[in-house]
Amino acid sequence: MTLLALDFGGTKLAAGIVNAGSREWLGYERALSPANANAHTDLEIMRSLIHSLLQGAKPTAIGVSFGGPVDATTGKVRLSHHVPGWENVPLQDLLMEDFGVPTRVDNDANVAALGEHRFGAGQGYDSLFYVTVSTGVGGGWILNGKPWRGTEGMAGEIGHMVVDPSGPVCLCGKRGCVERLASGPYMARDAREVLENEPPRRKESREVRGEVLRGLVGDNLDLITGKVLSEAAATGDDLARELLYRAGWALGMGIGNVANLMNPQRFVLGGGVTKAGESFWDIVRKVARETALPEVMNLEIVPAALGDDAPLWGAVALADDIAVDCNT
Amino acid sequence: MTLLALDFGGTKLAAGIVNAGSREWLGYERALSPANANAHTDLEIMRSLIHSLLQGAKPTAIGVSFGGPVDATTGKVRLSHHVPGWENVPLQDLLMEDFGVPTRVDNDANVAALGEHRFGAGQGYDSLFYVTVSTGVGGGWILNGKPWRGTEGMAGEIGHMVVDPSGPVCLCGKRGCVERLASGPYMARDAREVLENEPPRRKESREVRGEVLRGLVGDNLDLITGKVLSEAAATGDDLARELLYRAGWALGMGIGNVANLMNPQRFVLGGGVTKAGESFWDIVRKVARETALPEVMNLEIVPAALGDDAPLWGAVALADDIAVDCNT
């Protein structure tokens, strides 16, 4: 039984094939989504990755992770926030027509949650909430050992939980969403704004807020990213530390609220921002602990184990499940 | 098959018997919990209610709603926030010893959610979140048609979701919890504090904030309750309206966050505060809609149908389920 796993990320495309039950890829291909990509070009690139992988062979089933909201019951993409042209694309039907095998499509956070549950940091846990903190903040549920997608496939959106109603405005129109405070691009933007309004001071003061950060990007503030912020924070930059503290606070607050609301066995955190080091994790855990009720004693918050491959391994699990369901 | 349903509320005790499948009580008894009640006196009063109901007959099963955290797997009460002496009382075991029939105990919010699901505003809905806004704010989940209690039975605690981190301090130690802003006693306390610091002005100004409220309690501020506040708001009292607006805002924010996180089919709201009138409901619905993502289109927020009887009818459902499970 050969399973084909596809990952339509916002900026990259990946495909892998694997024998059911194996943890090693028989083949793996990836490509960057070009800057001017649209749904059509993404699909063409993915098709060429698949053909190079399969060499004409037919997989038993296909699982797909898509970076954006998906109606998981029909496998129809609602839209992508990164790539235009994905509005209402029936991705599941398209792939089933192309390859003639059972196919299942779900959004990346749900799929990554399934990947971590089946193959990663969530193995053996019946209930878990997976959170990815990266260019966006998303989440996916496993409850009673199965994905919980909600009535419209929208469950898991911790990124747009409001944790500070007087905080900065988010793209969604609300203030102080977790994503507004904790995602890489927003943190980078906030850092840039502070530095633009605070021209570098000279030697008279010993410590200058954001100086390390400025140095890392050679004064070209457009080069600041979440990753650069993490590096600056690790080197002791005050501004970077403040922003990462606020991100950890927002994430901890969100997780504590979720713990009170759902009381899952485990929280699994992935995505670039979670690589910001132990002090970031300390804040997340501390604030989550303070936000959760004392009776919620079970508050395990652990790093994801599969890293960037979580969606692709989750897509393997999706394909495996549908192959079993369809008895193919 | 006769089912015995018990409700240990914070201030009242109730018991009912019913034939399985029927919606009419064969017998129903209730009593107030005395001001100096403890676990022992509550149990004694409940036993006398039961004996008066059963007259020596034996029920097929017993379902129990308890007003406080319960370990639903063992039926052991953790504590009551209202009545002392309930710490670690094995209520399920005690009742099984007393009556020799299968018994199940769960906390009131979970049980009321089950009651609304089986007999009330949640009939036919596979996923719902029940919220009670009363002396406290609690919630209970139905997911995939079954109660979701979380790994330690603590799921549903929307009351201690932080919606305003710069808000007033809650008993739990955090600031701006939903319960701190929306529960009856806290609203009453906030009204008292405002009025104590704002002595009544005389005729010179036409409208005086809180004047209606003061009138309703004959200047005895200790008599202000959530109910009195609702009445004052309905009569146009500005202070009462402000506090109810803030309560509706907090509840709407909490519900919107939950919609993003779990995307259930329906929210069912009960408890005294939800009887505050249409303008309160309008705020709750408006803020919930603004807080939920636009892709979360399903955001039904409806009043509970069973009122104060939701826990007792939920206890009937608990008893029914355990009778079926035990094949008695």
Structure description:
- 2 copies of one chain form a homodimer.
- The first copy, chain A, is an alpha/beta fold and 328 residues long.
- Chain A has 2 domains: 2-107 and 307-325, Nucleotidyltransferase, domain 5, CATH 3.30.420; 158-303, 2-Layer Sandwich (Nucleotidyltransferase, domain 5).
- Chain A is 38% helix and 19% strand.
- Chain A contains 10 helices and 12 strands.
- Chain A has helices at residues 39-54, 91-99, 108-119, 178-182, 184-197, 211-216, 226-234, 238-262, 278-291, 310-325; strands at residues 2-8, 12-19, 27-32, 61-66, 70-71, 76-77, 103-107, 128-133, 137-143, 146-148, 266-270, 300-303.
- In chain A, the strands form 3 sheets. In chain A, strands 3-2-1-4-7 form a 5-stranded mixed β-sheet. In chain A, strands 10-9-8-11-12 form a 5-stranded mixed β-sheet.
- In chain A, α5 (184-197) crosses α7 (226-234) and α7 (226-234) crosses α8 (238-262).
- The longest helix of chain A is centred in the last third of the chain and has 25 residues, at 238-262.
- The model of chain A has no long low-confidence stretch (mean pLDDT 93).
- Chain A binds chain B through residues 69, 78, 127, 139, 141, 143-144, 148-158, 160-166, 172-174, 253, 256-258, 260-265, 290-291, 293, 295-298, and chain B through 69, 78, 127, 139, 141, 143-144, 148-158, 160-166, 172-174, 253, 256-258, 260-265, 290-291, 293, 295-298.
